[in-house]
Amino acid sequence: MSQKGLADRLQGGVFLLSLGLFGLFWAALAALKADPTVLPGPVEVARVFWSETLSGRLLRELTATLLRVTVSFGLAMAAGCLLGFLLGRHRALNRWADPWVTIFMNLPALVLIVLCYLWIGLNEVAAIVAVTLNKAAMVLVTVRQGVHSFDPALDDLALVSRLSRRDWFRHLVLPQLAPWLAVAARNGIAVIWKIVLVVEFLGRSNGVGFRIHLYFQQFQTAHVIAYSIAFIGVMLVVDHALIRPWEERSNRWKTTHA
Q1: Residue 254 and residue 182: Cα distance in Å, rounded?
Q2: Three-state DSSP state, 106
Q3: What is the mean pLDDT of residues 209-214?
Q4: Which listed residue, 82, 137, 139, 215, has the most CB atoms within 10 A of its CB?
Q5: For 30-49, what is each residue's pLDDT tens digit?
Q6: What count of other Cβ atoms lies within 10 Å of the Cβ of residue 176?
Q7: pLDDT band at 119 (very low <50, low <70, confident <90, very high)
Q8: Among 65-79, 113-127, 193-207, 242-256, the least confident range
Q9: 65 near 209, Cβ under 8 Å?
């Protein structure tokens, strides 16, 4: 077995062991509290999880939430990357737009969600717009910083080599920007699904956030935890299966050209 394969297996074993220890810690706290209505143990939550899965509700709500996350994430990444690249390349434009960026970066997500619902209505468009605006500013700042870190010598090389705009973007811009895009994507996954849950909590009739709101009103703690764990599990899979490999590949160019 290669050294990389051994390291991956070791990391995976540590990850699973850490999750197991968390489960034991949770079970110990639940036993100490001895009140399943306040803090149900892993066995009780697993029972609820299985029941919700068999009924089809869990998969249906997860699908609705994941669809909102996917659409919002794609729109936020596209808008943030485009604006971040433009601001990073054009200093005058960056100076004029910087106060706008600061406003959107510091505008609380809850306020923006409420305003979108008031201005657009309690519909899917408002939900997507609210999440996209919250995330796009973060992507913009990350990509802008990445553009500022570009090596000027590579631009000179492109000029001397008479590279076309397409080749310049493909072979020089994207490799330098890739690590920053990976950072933006990882931060986006960590933040955007939480914003989506708030959006659903406040104004949607389906999704994990809606279910959490419903069970919160009914004081069904086990159901709240079951739906939370289900979605966190999906996000962990996305992070380990997609985001981390992308981040590793994007860092190879930087390492080999350092």
Answers
A1: 13
A2: helix
A3: 91
A4: 139
A5: 888 878 888 898 889 999 99
A6: 19
A7: very high
A8: 242-256
A9: yes
Token couple for 100: 């706008």
Residue with tokens 């962990």: 236
Nearest to 130 by CA among 116, 150, 143, 145: 116
Q: Which residue, among 43, 120, 138, has the nearest Cα to 83 in the 3D structure?
A: 138
H or E element in which residue 204 lies = none
Question: Model pTM greater than 0.90?
Answer: no
Q: Which residues of 120-153 are buried (b: 16+ CB within 10 A; e: fewer)?
A: eeeeeebbbbbbbbbbbbbbbbbbbebbeeeeee
Given CA atoms 67, 186, 197, 228 in this order, what sign does their dihedral have?
positive
Give the pLDDT confidence score for residue 80 in this predicted structure: 92
Report the percent of the chain where pLDDT is more than 70.
86
**Tokens at 54, concatenated:** 């068999």
Cβ burial, residue 6 (10 Å; 0-12/13-18/19+): exposed
3-10, Cβ contacts within 8 angstroms, sequence gap of 24 or more: none
For residue 119, what are its two tokens? 């201005």
CATH number of 21-26+40-256: 1.10.3720.10
